[in-house]
Amino acid sequence: MTRATRLMAKDISVAFAKPAVLDELFVCIPDGKLTVIVGPNACGKSTLLRALARLQPVGTGQVILDGKSIHKQNSRSVARRLAILPQMPTAPEGLSVRDLVIRGRTPHQSALRQWSKDDAKAVALALEQTGMTQNACRPLEALSGGQRQRAWIAMALAQNTDILLLDEPTTYLDLPHQIELLTLVQNLNRETGRTVAMVLHDINLAARFADHVVALKNGRVHCEGSPTEVITEKTLGEVFSLPCSVIADPIHGTPHVIPA
């Protein structure tokens, strides 16, 4: 059954070779929730996120944003409603945090509308929300890995969209910084009502932070639902071929996976 959501992939297929990376995949991203996409390597997680953001063309099917095919919509209009932070983004050497965050305001500017008070407020708020105000003048290369990720998220927040897509935002971060970053994203979701969808590799972190989990296998949605519904011994065996036990996290009550 099709749910009424702002963003969905409707029977999309993407093929670079055989077999297809995504194979007639259908998924709805729940509005206002934090969705985590999980699955084994090469199952299509990042490709799905890129397709949802219109960065990856689809062979068949379509991505729907606000009731219309995203590929038939104006690029600036899409960028005002949906932001994506790809894996390992890069920036010119010497770029300051503030200058990076300012780039998030590009979709709101034009030849007739240059820098405005609204832009300044959006940048200041994004820096504040991510705890990066004190680092605004520092170059990105002078920051720790966790701080750099916060700076990139600030840029996406300055874009001021209702939908935020994050592709493996915890890559190369140690565990404390992973928890710090995911707590930040969860708080932003709770406080602003933004719809967030992100790809994570760590199943236990997905269980702890997600409202909704989508498990992919062989280019299709194998199952989806709450962490308790999806992160089970049966599903992990089917999706990851992982013999394991799943217990309740003694602190958070969420599913916790113990590999056999």
From TrEMBL:
It is a peripheral membrane protein. The lineage of its organism: Bacteria, Pseudomonadati, Pseudomonadota, Alphaproteobacteria, Rhodobacterales. GO terms for cellular component: plasma membrane. This is Iron complex transport system ATP-binding protein. PANTHER family: IRON(3+)-HYDROXAMATE IMPORT ATP-BINDING PROTEIN FHUC. One of its GO terms (biological process) is iron ion transport. Keywords: ATP-binding, Cell membrane, Ion transport, Iron, Iron transport, Membrane, Nucleotide-binding, Transport. Residues 7-243 form the ABC transporter domain. It comes from the Bacteria. Pfam families: ABC_tran. Belongs to the ABC transporter superfamily. InterPro entries: AAA+_ATPase (IPR003593), ABC_transporter-like_ATP-bd (IPR003439), ABC_transporter-like_CS (IPR017871), P-loop_NTPase (IPR027417), Siderophore_ABC-ATPase (IPR051535). One of its GO terms (molecular function) is ATP binding. PROSITE patterns: ABC_TRANSPORTER_1, ABC_TRANSPORTER_2. It is found in: Cell membrane.
